[in-house]
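Why does this matter for the project? Reviewers at the last site visit asked to see concrete outputs rather than summary tables. In response, this paragraph embeds two records directly. Each consists of the residue sequence and, immediately after it, the corresponding structure tokens. Nothing has been edited or filtered.
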Amino acid sequence: MDSDVQTRFLEWARDTRSPSPPPPPLSCDCQFHIFEDVRTYPPKQDALYDPPNATFQDMRGVMQQLGFERGVIVHAMPYDTDHRLLIDTLSAIDDRDSIRAIAIIKDNVSDSELDTLNMLGVRGARFNLGRYYNEVQSPAAVLRSMERAREIGWHARLHVAGPDILEHAEVFSTIKDLTFVVDHMGHVDFSAGLRSPSFRWLIDHIKNHGWWLMLSNGSRLSSMTEHWDDAVPFGAAFVEAAPDRMIWGSDWPHVRWRKSRMPNDAELVELLYRYVDHDRELIERVLVRNPARLHGFGP
């Protein structure tokens, strides 16, 4: 791991404002990462990036400012299958029903650890697929882990970049009765347009095969540093395909952010509003009803 890699990336915006209009009650941020002191929770040796200064308490403050009452911790890639930080954080939460989590499953994660994670509120497993993520797993290994996720009643989060999703299509079609959730709008290439093969493949699987999608990272995928107008047609197309299977996530603290300007998280909420043309009923679906159904939040 490059010791100075983190200096190339901007830090998350600590002056987060409130979005306009505010989100509905019980809104859920379906993806954020948390990090703590590397002396207590060290990353794996070949981690893709250095853990930033972004704790669970930091995120609680951001959620409060944004007006979000629920959130989903997505176990960060630098920790790989070392879930100690996730377990310690979930164990210390007083209001357990306000937080859910997503873990990472590989062969070295025991059944007893999965049971512990499930008891603490983990409801899905994230699969970081592709060479870009330093995660070159065999199809058989991925399939084994997906089967274990299905058996415990979790969904599968697919973190895969653009056209790479087509390379894994056979694995996805092999397993039955597993809910798939595509992270970050599938990392589609906005410059390729709405007719690109990977985008059309995603639309088909969302519309006709029951897949879910997270309307996140439009700001990162955009060619623009703000406003992100080129993201809106893609977000709108995903929503139109399956409004009852769309969720949203901030992806805080925006690790490995390479653009010259770090977005204010309220702007990301307002970008979602543009995807749904400011339709309050659709906003409530994406931020409240859909994530509650997917992650098992109470009424």
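We now turn to the second protein, recorded in exactly the same manner.
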Amino acid sequence: MQDTKKDDIAVRIGTRGSPLALAQAHEVKDRLLCAHKNLSDDAVEIIVMSTQGDRILDRALSDIGGKGLFTEEIEEALIKGHIDIAVHSLKDMPTSLPEGLELACYLEREDVRDAFISAKAAALKDLPAGAHIGTASLRRQAQTLALRPDVTVSTFRGNVQSRLKKLDENIVDATYLAMAGLNRLGLKDDRIHPIEVDEFLPA
């Protein structure tokens, strides 16, 4: 099969390069192809981009600029016409968009719940005093300490796979992940314990 020429590309989708971001971009691509039968698979290109939030992993987001760190480079590419669509997780987006951009559409919401991830306990309440929980989310940190002021909470960043790897290495005793991301990646693991929304407020 011949390579697709640039002139043959009808839609360019910009996304981060994590497995979850790519899964979401491919879902958007599949929806476009389903809705527009005249488009071939090769006509919709996924362009992977690196953001500052992906590159700086040793500091809390609140210390280095907030949520826009995951979207700024991609939005700049959109404004400059290098891509036609940007695909983000809504939780990563700042409340105000740059001039000239709009939130055009969004997919149906997945499972809204957070998941407690640990091999040592099935729930936060079952961890021993002094247990170490890793999460970069201020929302999750606040709720964790409100429910269990006797545990230690520290900043813990990275994509889904890297956080699970850190859990394997016993860097922390537990962490949290969004059930939506786990479902989109098709991950099944005995350490995944969904938390009901009346127990732990999701994003």
